[in-house]
Amino acid sequence: MSGCEEYTLITDPESLFKINHPELPLSYYTGVLGMAGLTAYAGFFDVSKPKQGDYVFISSASGAVGQLVGQLAKITGCYVVGSVGSDEKVNLLKTKFGFDDAFNYKKEEDLNAALKRCFPQGIDIYFENVGGAMLAAVLPNMRMNGRIAVCGMISQYNLEQPNGAPNLFCLVAKRIRMEGFMVLDYFGTYNKFEEEIAGYLKEGKISVVEDVAEGIENVPTALIGLFSGHNIGKQLVTIAHE
Fold it and tell me: What positions does the domain Alcohol dehydrogenase-like C-terminal occupy (predicted)?
């Protein structure tokens, strides 16, 4: 991985890898076939241990990770709901990515009530990308023996004093397994992941939406947009067209 630059000098050629599916867009290897995709795949299958019929909730669901988790959950036979920050993204989840339901958390006065509306039977799997108030609302809505895969907590990164979840005893009472993970621990599974996801892409079972900014001068704006929820899907910056 290099910096934000127009030209890169590779001093460690062993870090490069062959593109095995050149018939797919090259940009996919920065997203759905890259670290974001492997994060979604490992977090859902290895950490969450899904079963057909599970009720799955994903926060920040229109991002590069969330959109793939949702589609993998549907392929597995789960009921899937996502939370996002705009009505446009709600529509995208339901029409493009096949989510069963979605809601705009910015329009919900009570997140707990929103989750009860979407999951009257409770949640089996929560794929955590946000933290804070969303996690606090999710915990009492989890089912017995639920699983929480902690991928990130973007609402907390820039706070001087991060919020704590006030109801962690739910983990005990409901025998919930809450596990954090890092994609670096799953690099050894990349080949299996790549072949499976590439197959789904070619079969049309997985859709991809990317957010592309033009020009290296727009890197700061694109980066800041990640923390305000401006992007839809993997945020990319194009510096040259071949």
Answer: 64-194
Across the chain, the runs of DSSP E, i.e. the strands, are: 55-59, 79-84, 101-104, 123-128, 142-150, 177-180, 210-214, 234-238
Contacts by residues 159-167 (CB-CB < 8 Å, ≥ 24 positions apart): 162/131, 162/132, 163/131, 163/132, 163/133, 163/136, 165/135, 165/136, 165/139, 166/136, 167/136, 167/139, 167/140
For residue 236, pLDDT over 90 is answered with no
Q: Which position has the higher pLDDT, 242 or 207?
A: 207
The span from the CA of 26 to the CA of 235, in Å, is 14
Residue 17 · residue 10 · CB < 8 Å:
no
Domains of the chain, each with CATH number or no CATH: 29-184 (3.40.50.720)
Q: What is the pLDDT of residue 7?
A: 82
